[in-house]
Amino acid sequence: MAESLPLEMLTYILSFLPLSDQKEASLVSRAWYCAAQNALREQPGLTSLDLSGCSELADGALLAVSLGLQHLRRLSLRKLQRLTDAGCKALGGLQELRSLDMAECCLVSGRELAQALGSACRAPPPLASLSLAYCSSLKPRLELEHQAMGPKELSPKPQGPSLLMLRTLQELDLTACSKLTDASLAKVLQFPQLRRLSLSLLPAFTDTGLVAVARGCPSLEHLVLSHCSLLSDEGWAQAASSWPRLQHLNLSSCSQLTEQTLDTIGQACKQLRVLDVAMCPGISMAAIRHFQAQLPQVTCIQSRFVGGADLTLTL
Asked: Are residues 65 and 4 in the same domain?
C-alpha cells in the first residue's frame, strides 16, 4: 500500500517519525529510503551539534551531517583530528550555519575549507563565529588563497576563496595557527563587524600585523594577544586609537611591553573593563596603579607575575 504512495506523500508521513524510526523505515525499500532521506533534509530538526573530541570521525561523517542536518546553525568539530580538506567540502551544504568551531582539526589546511565557507555564507543568515584555533597546518595566507595583488590593485573584495568572503564575521579564533604571518593577516583580517578576535601564540606576529589588524577590524570589543612576544610599545602607539570599543584585552606574556603601552591604552580605550598583563616583566605595580587612576571603571586587572611578583590584583 505504502509503495503506491507518491514520494512527496511518503516523505510527509515519515517526517512525523522520530529520527530512530526514520532510520528503520529507510531499510524497508528503495522508495522508503528516498522518502526517509527527504524527510531528514526537510525537517527543522537539530540546529546545534557538538562532535568535539570524536576522534574516530573522519570526512564521511561531515558529509552525512551536511546531507541530513541542513538546518544546523551551530557546529563544533573541535579535535576531529582525522578531518581533512576533502571533508570540508561538505560544509557548503550547511546554508544556515552561523557558528563553526574547527579548533585542533590539524589536517585541515585550505582551499576546500575556503570554498565551503564561501558557499555556506552566500545565503542568510551569515556565518558569525569561526574558530580555527590550533590548526597549525594553516599556512601563510591561511591557505585560503586570497590572490596576491599589486599595490595599484588592492581591493577589500576577495579575488578567490578567502576569509574575506565572511564579511559579517563577528568572532574569529586563530589561536596557535603558528604558520600565519603579518602578510597573511594584513590581507585577510578585514572585518568591520568583528567583535571578538584571538591571535594568541602566533610567533611571527609583529607590530606591522598589529597595526594592520587594527585598521581592518575597528569594532573589536574582545582581543586576545597572549604570548605574542614580538609586539612592542611602538606597535600599540599606532594601533590603540583604532579600538575605542575595546572592553577585554589580554596581553599576557607579551614580554616587550612596558608601562608606555599601558599609558597608550589608557588614553585610547576608554571602554576597557578587563586587562590581563600577566607575566609582562616590563610592567610594574606602580604602572598598574597609574593605569587604574586613568580608568577607574576597570573592575579587574589581572597582573600575575607582574615585575616578577606572583600576584593577582583585582581592582
From this structure: no
Q: Is-contact 143 111, C-beta < 8 A?
A: yes
Mean pLDDT of the residues in the chain: 80
The reply to whether 78 and 184 lie within a common domain is: yes
One domain for residues 51 and 165? yes
Q: Under a CB-based contact definition with an 8 Å cutoff, are residues 218 and 193 in contact?
A: no
Q: What is the pLDDT of residues 272-302, one digit of tens each?
A: 999 998 888 898 888 888 888 878 888 656 6
Of 153, 220, 212, the C-alpha closest to 192 is 220
| C-alpha cell read off for 23 | 532510520
Backbone phi, psi, residue 50, to 5°: -115, 110
Last residue of a domain, one of 145, 175, 191: 191
Three-state SS at 141: helix
Domain that residue 24 falls in: 1-43
DSSP H stretches of helix in the chain:
7-14, 19-25, 30-42, 59-68, 85-88, 111-120, 182-188, 207-216, 233-239, 259-268, 285-294
pLDDT digits (tens, 9 = 90+) for 159-212: 455 566 677 789 999 999 888 889 888 887 888 999 999 999 999 999 999 999
Task: Answer yes or no: do 61 and 182 share one domain.
Answer: yes
pLDDT of the residue at 82: 87
Question: What is the rounded radius of gyration, in angstroms, for the C-alpha atoms of the chain?
Answer: 24
Report the CATH number at residue 27.
1.20.1280
Please write the tens of the pLDDT for every residue from 128-155. Answer: 898 989 887 776 444 444 443 344 444 4
Give the DSSP H/E element, type plus range, for residue 252. none
Q: Is the pLDDT of residue 2 over 80?
A: no
Cβ neighbour number for residue 29 with a 10 Å cutoff: 12
Phi, then psi, of 221 in degrees rounded to 5: -115, -25
